[in-house]
Amino acid sequence: MALRRPVSTPRRAPASSLAAAKEPWQLQPLSRQLRAPLGTHPPSPQTALGRLQAVRPAEYARTRNHLDGAVTGLSPYITHGMLPFAQVIHTLRDRHGLGLRHKLIQELAWRAYFRHRWRHDGERIFGSLHAGPLPDSAYASLLPSDVLEGRTGVPAIDQAVRVLYTTGTLHNHARLWLASYLIHVRKVHWRIGADWMWAHLLDGDLASNHLSWQWVAGTASAKPYLFNAENVSRFAPAPWHSPATAIDATYTELEHLARAAQALKAEPGAHPGVLPPPVRSVPPQDFEFSAPDAAAIADREIWLMHPWSLARPPDGALCIAFIDLEFHTRWPWSVHRWAWVLAHMGERAQLRWAGSTQACVQALGRARAIHGPSDPHLPHPIGAMLSSPAPAFAEPVERCRSFSHWWQQVNDFGAAVPPSAPLQAHSPPLR
Ligand SMILES: Cc1cc2nc3c(=O)[nH]c(=O)nc-3n(C[C@H](O)[C@H](O)[C@H](O)COP(=O)(O)OP(=O)(O)OC[C@H]3O[C@@H](n4cnc5c(N)ncnc54)[C@H](O)[C@@H]3O)c2cc1C
User: Where would you tag: which of 266, 339, 411, 423 has the fewest CB atoms within 10 A of its CB?
Assistant: First the structure.
């Protein structure tokens, strides 16, 4: 069976197939889209702290696999540095007396492990780490339009696409289902799916996302992740249930499907679709940015805010928000994610710069000192000017090939971060 006609970029679905224009970005100018409510995860530090305080570890351990389980909803705040990762871990440990082996700490540890792999493997995490069930060339390099528009006819998949687009987030189980369906049923290369999901997630983290997709694909794990309609019925509410669809199969049948080169199509019949939110590689015009300007910061002490460090800058610091346009040319974001990040940056920063890595580094070279946490998403020359965040765990230094190997060697939490840790000044390398 051949793939349905695939598309490479988001495009309008035929009007007749679209659900009523309920989503705020449908039929609205970009500026209206950006003011659309950000729903379940508003970009505010108060919400982030409130969520951290509301965590129920015992409930989490019991129910986390269910779509309506007591998951924390912390990931966008952690990814964008509104809640520093080590602070989250230490708060949970101290408030609830959680040990290293508690389920919640272990799930958080996956994030640290994926970063460990990124640190050691670098760019290699963006290609298959080893062979999966089929060679890379057996998978399509374009997303089928019915998946992109959430009209596959498999309710679990179409619901997941809608939740991703409307909230910018998705329960872990739904991410697993969506990735597994795309790779093993529709035979789309994991990297295509990973880039697409990353662009729409408010918590998109290149290590957690791309390595999770590889884990589902079977290119970073011993076997592919497969799921069926029975699994969906167990963990998701009724509108997600998918009897009599391609995923209503036994695991033996799904195993065969994953190892067969043939892709299945969307379910027969017409299914209502939705528009994907537009994806952009530059910040929307609604937010004013200027080119990096050395004169504006000459001999000043500055705090560099970037999309992975949205924590409140210290009082008195000159705060500059920076968007690296080279990074986003490679890794664009949905308008939803731009709005989330920029709403917060706009409130906090006195200066907003967008430009190339080189232009930023040159301008920063005129500052007296630069403060702020680094992050692996930053290009190296900028990251190297900033402080490494406190580690959440006492991690092994040498590369570990599997989570279990890494986790066995983590024997403690990272050193405590004092609440009022003094800023670490960094002399800029260029003067
Ligand atoms: C295909 C796929 C793509 C994913 N992409 C991302 C991503 O881009 N960014 C991201 O933060 N997570 C990603 N995850 C992991 C996980 O799905 C999300 O962290 C989680 O669903 C976020 O919701 P929560 O904060 O309520 O999580 P909770 O279950 O409440 O977990 C608490 C925190 O632990 C961490 N965590 C939990 N599970 C995982 C995991 N499996 N891997 C890594 N960290 C975890 C997150 O920081 C999360 O906020 C992905 C998983 C899959 C299967």
Answer: 411
Q: What is the largest CA-CA distance in the chain?
A: 67
Tokens of 97: 């007396």
pLDDT value at position 416?
Answer: 63
**138 touches 144 (CB < 8 A):** no
Decide: 212 and 126 in contact? Cβ < 8 Å: no
Strands 351-355 and 318-324: parallel
CA 363 to centroid of chain Cα atoms: 29
For the stretch 347-381, pLDDT in tens is: 889 999 999 999 999 999 999 999 999 999 999 99
Return the CATH architecture of domain 6-36+127-259: Orthogonal Bundle (1.10)
- Burial environment of residue 362 by CB neighbours within 10 A (0 to 12, 13 to 18, 19 or more): middle
Domain segments of the chain as ranges? 6-36+127-259, 294-409
Measured distance CA(58)–CA(96) in Å, rounded: 10
pLDDT band at residue 67 using 50, 70 and 90 as cut-offs: very high
Q: Which atom of ligand 1 is nearest to the CA of 64?
A: 29
pTM for the model stands at: 0.90
Which atom number of ligand 1 is nearest to the Cα of residue 203?
9
pLDDT digits (tens, 9 = 90+) for 195-218: 999 999 999 999 999 999 999 999
Nearest CA to ligand 1 atom 49: 75
- Residues whose CB falls within 8 Å of the CB of residue 316, separated by 6 or more in sequence, listed in order: none
- Ligand 1 contact via 209 beta carbon (within 6 Å): yes
SS3 assignment, position 23:
coil
